[in-house]
Amino acid sequence: MARSQAPYVCQSCGAVTAKWAGKCESCGGWNTIVEEGAPPPVGAGATRRVKGRKFALEDLKTDEPSPPRRPTGVAEFDRVTGGGLVPGSALLVGGDPGIGKSTLILQALGRYAQSGERAVYISGEEALAQVRMRGSRLGLSDAPLHLGAATCVEDILATLESGPPPGIVAIDSIQTLWTAALDAAPGTVAQLRTASFDLVRYAKASGAALLLVGHVTKDGQIAGPKAIEHLVDAVLYFEGERGHHFRVLRAVKNRFGATDEIGVFEMTGQGLAEVANPSALFLGDRTSAAPGTAVFAGLEGTRPLLCEIQALVSASTYGTPRRAVVGWDTGRLAMILAVLDARAGIGIGAADVYLNVAGGLKIGEPAADLAAAAALVSSLAGEPLPRDTVFFGEISLSGDIRPVPQAESRLKEAAKLGFSRAFVPAGTRATGLALTEIANVSELVSLVPARRPTPVRAKLES
């Protein structure tokens, strides 16, 4: 019989290899491959068959009403989850260390407990005294929340099963848990997979909503994502920059709601405050009339969101122009610059270009192309854009401005914040704002600003 070998598993992506290596070939991580427990011998149980038990097959028709959701009382959190937590569901919440994951979960469970429901918070990283200090700072000292400090999965399940099933159970964090069934160290992929499976199985059987807190790697991914994400019903990322006072909760997987919803919070001395109007937060005062700023009317899930895109174009002092982007895709910027050069002939590709989304927000939708192009043209010409104007539209490689979905919602949000004009793709119809339809980038250059910008090459030659 062949000799069994212990597998080597990457602790970042869960890839299995036959031997140890310094670098994982799947995710590229260094020193992430760890030897785990040996599998059963080759052929063990292969010839042994266990007789199964028949189960009834059913059709898609059902007369059973869907179980009511459990709102936590934190409106922004409930928005991202789709209107509240579904009984028996499992959610994974990830984020950078110190971003506010524990604060968010404690606030949600505290308000849920204040509504008269039963909630349990299990801490594997902090002592109960630390959790109570945070609860006091958040104003939740009187909340009837059940606290516990444990890292053994068997102890946690025995405690939960000894009483009535709670409405919500939070585990902070999943990387600290371990099970006696494995010899691997806590935090390894084997321990993550086993601990998550046991907790999810308890949630499905009892009807409790399970919240798992997970840390992220240097690449911004939840540690061990391939081993955990398929076990849970929703994956939420808590994002934000340490230099900014706001946080964004974003859903990347959700079996019970939209995957492009966001919730916006503001970090204060009393915890996370909900931001009901995030557009006003990201726009700020906007008192400056400097060139190179354009307001983008975006859409995050079902929520229209306005933000400011800032651009700076300067003559390059080196042979290779520099590109620096914050909050947007670098490849998208390179495409916009190439289209402006080829279709509008402004010669912007030879300049240093800096692009920033104000407030630290990250934009992923192509509708921001027109706003970014307008900011670039404005900075190159040295003339500011009208302060009461918003922009949105997708730019194709041919230079045409393509329409984007839900234009009416974007324009309604702009009108609510005091904007009176909008530069939009041709064919857009809406009321309330004066619309300027743009068919291609050549029209954009002629309209924004009033005079055509001087090419960078001409500036350098002069």
Q: In summary, what is this structure?
A:
With 462 residues, the protein is an alpha/beta fold. It is 26% helix and 24% strand.
Descriptive account of the structure:
With 462 residues, the chain is of the alpha/beta class. The protein has three domains: 1-41; 75-276, P-loop containing nucleotide triphosphate hydrolases (Rossmann fold, 3-Layer(aba) Sandwich), CATH 3.40.50.300; 281-461, Ribosomal Protein S5, domain 2. Helices cover 26% and strands 24% of the residues. It has twelve helices and 21 strands. Strands 6-5-7-8-4-9-10-11-12 form a nine-stranded mixed beta sheet. A hairpin with a 2-residue loop joins strand 13 (293-300) and strand 14 (303-315). The longest helix is centred in the middle third of the chain and has 18 residues, at 189-206. The termini are far apart. 40% of the residues are buried.
